[in-house]
Amino acid sequence: MSNKKKKQEEKQSKISKIFESFVGEVALNTISIHADKEEGVWKYYDSLGGSNDEALLCLHGVPGSCDVFFQQLLSLSSRGYRVVSAQYPPFWSYRTFCRSFKEFLSSLELEKIHLFGLGYGGFLIMKYLEKEKDQRIKSVVLCNTFVSTLFFSRLNTCGGMITWAPEFWLKRKLLKTFPQKEVLVPIAEGLDFMVEVVEKMTYEDISSRLTMISTETTIGEIDFDPQFVTIIDPTDKGYVPRKVRRKVATKFPDCKFAQVKIGGDFPQLSNPQEVNMHLIIHLRNTGWDPDQETRLNQKIPKSLPKKSKSKKKKKKSKKHKKKKKSKKVKETEQEEEKKEIKENENEKEKEKEKKKEEEEEEEEEEEEEEEEEEESKEKNEGGKTLKVKNKNDQEENN
């Protein structure tokens, strides 16, 4: 058994090891929603558990699930942002999806919603914006997405009989969309994790997604302010050609572009730091920037795996050290606060002294001006008396 476990651990990607610790801390939620006489089960992770009425909601592509955005949940929640990673149920019409998605958003009890769509998830977000005028949607981020499914008609090579194809064939079809040549290490690690995700996908999920994406559909007119739209565009090659991705900007002419140097088809996994940075910048530009107090008070999911019981004593000692450190930190903070208070008092005293000096200077200037005025008056009076005397002398001589 131990050898098998070792082999399984060796097969696991680096990202999947981090994901295991994430799953141990954050619960997977499910909710069943009825739309157009069809029942669908939505699965989702909620980083802050409904403690905020504003959230960033992420939607995955055809190969994917709510697992693929766990690094965004970890990073952004540490800054006070509430992040929801959702997995949509199987659907066979966009009308059904839009109604189900709207009810799902209502179930989260959110007042302000920011959407992040990857691949086909971005296409679904645009389809929702086209069909529904939801005032709760405040901004949109799109990555590796498209405005028409015509490019994906090559996936339907079995004459519209995807629903009759066996599960292993459908999974193989999905995996063929991944790069078959050598790629950079970060992209390879992301692909390894995505292979594990595809292996966990159900037959209904794969068949419905492949059927919908392989039928020709285009995005119509969207009534949404393009100033609140950001397109994250990886500079390297992916399954969706760059020409196809660039057409998304035609729907949002004044949108913002954010480039990612290394990303591939799944930049949120292969280059999470850069993607998270662009997400935070986008959210701050929309006016959403949690305060420092909320960042500290929110319960943040831990990204580190749990240690064995034998190391509990070490944990305790570390806790005591942390407490001691925290006391020292508090003392230093108090000293810094006292220094700041003294500095503020000194500055106030200096300001008072400056004001007094300025007032004294103003008084002196006023006194000087008064003296000058008096002197000028005296001179004028003296001049007048001289003129009178001269006139009298002239009269006497005459």
UniProtKB/TrEMBL annotation:
InterPro entries, alphabetized: AB_hydrolase_1, AB_hydrolase_fold, Maspardin
Primary location group: cytoplasm
Residue numbers spanned by region Disordered: 288-398
Biased composition (Basic residues): 304-328
Cellular component aspect of the GO annotation: cytoplasm
Record keywords, A-Z: Cytoplasm
Signal peptide stretch: none
Bias type Basic and acidic residues, positions: 329-357, 376-398
Segments forming domain AB hydrolase-1: 55-155
Compositionally biased tracts (Acidic residues): 358-375
Source organism superkingdom: Eukaryota
Subcellular location, record wording: Cytoplasm
One Pfam short name: Abhydrolase_1
Name of the protein: Maspardin
